Amino acid sequence: MQDSHENPADRGRQKNANASVTRRKTFYLLNALGMHPTYADIKQKFNFPEHTNTASPTLNLSGLQGSLSSLLAAQLFNDTGVPLLIIGSQASFDIYDNDLPGLLGPATVHTVSDELPAALGALSENRAAVLLANFDDVVTPLQNPEGSEKRLFCLEKDQEAGYTTLTDFLAENGYNRMEFVEEEGQFSTRGSIVDIFLFGSREPVRMEFFGDTVTSIRSFDTNSQLSGAQLDAVVLTGNFFSEKHHDDDKGPSWCLLDYLPPETVILIDDIASFNAFEKKAAVEKKLEGFPCLCINRLEKQTLDFHSEAQTKLNANFKLFARELNREKPDKRHTVFVGRSKKEIEELVEFVSEEARDIRRTIPVEFNWVALNLHSGFVFNGLDVYTESDIFGKLHTHKSHKKRAFKGISLKDLQTLKVGDYIVHEDYGIGVFKALETIEVGNSEQESVLIEYQGGDELYVNVQNIRLISKYNASEGSMPTLSKLGSPKWKAKKEKVKKRLKDIASKLIKLYAKRKMTPGFAFGQDSIFQREFEASFIFDETIDQLKTIEEVKNDMRSQSPMDRLICGDAGFGKTEIAMRAAFKAVESKKQVAVLTPTTILTHQHAETFKRRFENFPVNIAVLSRFVSRKEQKELVEKISRGLVDIVIGTHRLVSKDVLFQDLGLLIIDEEQHFGVAVKEKLRQSFPGVDTLTMSATPIPRTLQFSMLGARDLSIVSTPPRNRQPVETVITQFNPGTIREAIQHEINRQGQVFFLHNRISGLDQVRNTLHELIPEAKTAIAHGQMPTAELENVMMRFINHELDVLISTSIIGSGLDISNANTIIINRADMFGLSDLYQLRGRVGRSERKAYSYLIIPSADTLKREAMERLAVIESFTELGSGFNIAMRDLDIRGAGNLLGAEQSGAIHELGFDLYQKLLEEAVSELKSGEFSQLFTPNESQPVQMEGNTDMGFYFDALIPEYYISATQERFSFYEKISKSQTDNAIDSIRDELRDRFGPLPEDVENLIGVAKLKNLCSAIGLSKVDIQPQTLSIILPGENNAEFYNRHFFQELIASLQSEWMQKYTPRFQQGKKMKLLLHNPPDYPAEPAVLMEQYRSLLKKLNHA
User: Fold this and answer.
1) Which domain holds residue 198?
2) Environment class of 936 (CB within 10 Å of its CB; exposed 0-12, middle 13-18, buried 19+)
3) Is residue 312 located within the same domain as residue 279?
């Protein structure tokens, strides 16, 4: 396909048998609107582009179907060159929000709800802009527009703006100075760097100065604190929003309309919604004097564009192909508007196939505009189809919620705090006391102070922080402090390592058995597979696409698939499973879908049937809802291969259920199945591809995947439009509970109220009846008769109940998109994964969802319970399930990880060291006993390098004046110490430079020492001591045969007499360990960082690295 101008002779066509497509520019669509007589009438009445009419008329328009209204707005903006404010209902807002950035460029379009300061900044600079607003946005109270220029500060790169002038402006305009910027309205200063999170902005900016000159402006991420895109300029704004409440009838004293220049064009879409707006009168008064266009979508007006709504084809490609192949009497031009070249190619293929079927001789012609439009229309000789019209894809508008800071991050929870238990690989378990600067020789260095049994103290230089980890074991576990100088710690480690090697061997044998079991190799995707996938009504996320490809590759392999998909509720795991199921069924294989509950079985059945409705696939359900007679008939059909996909509970693993040719087993919510059921599955279907899905897999399952005993895919990208669940931790308060339930019922939603004691459910129901007597409630718990429980659940699913009062049985994968508030009583009694799973019952639609965690007084809670609640409150970010599961390993999971037998070992060593030893054991076995099972990359042994002791005469540390926060300093020491490559250390150097400004000499020295230490450790040197005139290299003891047989030592001995080595005047000194003394040549630089680089080059030359 090629770009073409409007001369038909220049058209570039892609031909495929009986169909051809011509690529067009956006102008092709805009021109069709601009040439229409109704648009000419609008221009004449408003006298565009001069706009000299003083009357500023209001024009009523109609006949604007689909995205034609967006084309009108874009054409108006292009023709007038003045600001355009579009005010609309949410439905209208979504259309413009989707369409206009592509038509006009994203820098031109501002949504008032979250980009007001940027929009007002553009207007203040007399730059034309398009503002998108809901009706409520227009009446949001703002400060007096007089003097608004004082709330604006325009900054450009290379401008001499004044560092102090800027910080004064921020302080005077409502910004709070913080150590690090995390939320809007904050700023921080670190040396020459100023970070600012503007009011109403989506992300903060970072400015760097040289004196008073701005040398760099860039955006940055609040969570990583790392810079993003470079910016040429930024308009800093004070707080435009007014704290004053206004009279509901009169509207605000000042609002958005008071800031607009008088020539601004106002477009209201649609007038019926505007007429119903409660503050309409106040807005109308403010609109006087502005040229207004009002779109009426219900009644025909004098200025009518005569367009028609486009037919929705819902991925029925045959219908679309027939429509295109049908001769059109009015000679309309068919236009496909979409971003995907792949989808265009598929359309051409289908249209061509249909054309061949009907023996059409004249090629079908249609046009393509590479653009994202909301919905199509028929207008002025154009038959416009969008992706939504053809493929049935739902429109996914951009989220305009401001970035929320996550509170406590995973990194924060794993960061050491004073008083925490700490594990040193060589010395054992102690208590972290402080990060102190001490003198070592002639230099200052920071060290970690650890206290051991009996009050003994150990200073660990920050270079060796890689040997330290926070102690994590089972919840509430209190370790015994180690005794410095005792051999017990080393003996413990060796004993655990031996046990771990046995466990790892069993793990790998399981993996080997799976690899060696013959499986079925499925083929490549067919045209029908592509048609099935194209009919998905949502846009796939990046993680979904990656996981789908991983699953397909597994299925194409000769070995049976065993893959775990970990992803939050509603993130598209089921769609991945359905695509795998389609591939299996197309290859004449049967599919079994195993679910933990009858309710979930029927929900899955509905989902599968809807998704497969246009394909000849036989789907059946095997559960308690099905009568005995029907079950018997169904089992017979399964054995004869007459059922393609069967969905059921553990009834599927009964002896009487025999498949004719099972090719794929899908297990949903695996954590709810017992060991016995899973063992039975493995025995029943040894060579069958298995796909397991879970939001928070049990720690043992997760650990198997992390160690490579099964394959793991993580789906952590939320679907567009999905909002995080707002989590509130509160004590029991009748007013809060009443308000939460009433709010949900008022928006026609439903509520889960969870109370995990069956004996108290009736009392809870009575209390709720007193608080909200009009709410329809019912009770559900696991001890109810099955039929009664299922009846209650089905009533709730069918929206016959407002509030479901239940125990934690609702945690099993229920998908009720209308339930968007959950109240969990005594949340402190639940485990972390349980809380996360329960919270996942809400927030499955575009609506904002709420989770209330009810606790007793915080003073009465254990530390572990508070930590759990802090985690669940903090991980509001969508896609946190995998992190929650990992954190669960830290908080509760040690004993469950690989069975209770290992909990003692984890208690003795701490989880991190246990994990490290386990990885080493697995690596040793992969590269040794089981090397034939793994590829060369998989069988590479973990590099267990030495740890060279470094001495030096200069300061190598992060000064407090550079990074004042102790935890942040410790974090960087830890990152530098644990980085084993130059690239990794350079990345940390870049991060320091980005966040804190140019590196002081002491920090440059620290970076140089880390790189030199890594090289020396890799070579195997015992100690290196750098002095102003000499370099001392201490070799390991003579019993280290591996070192003395290596290339480095041979090269070192051979080079001693070489000419290039003689300039260092080398001299060996014999003692307990051999020491090589090198003298710095006279021409060597004095700066420590440069000196270390020279030594690195020397050692690399000897090592041939």
Assistant:
1) 151-236
2) exposed
3) no
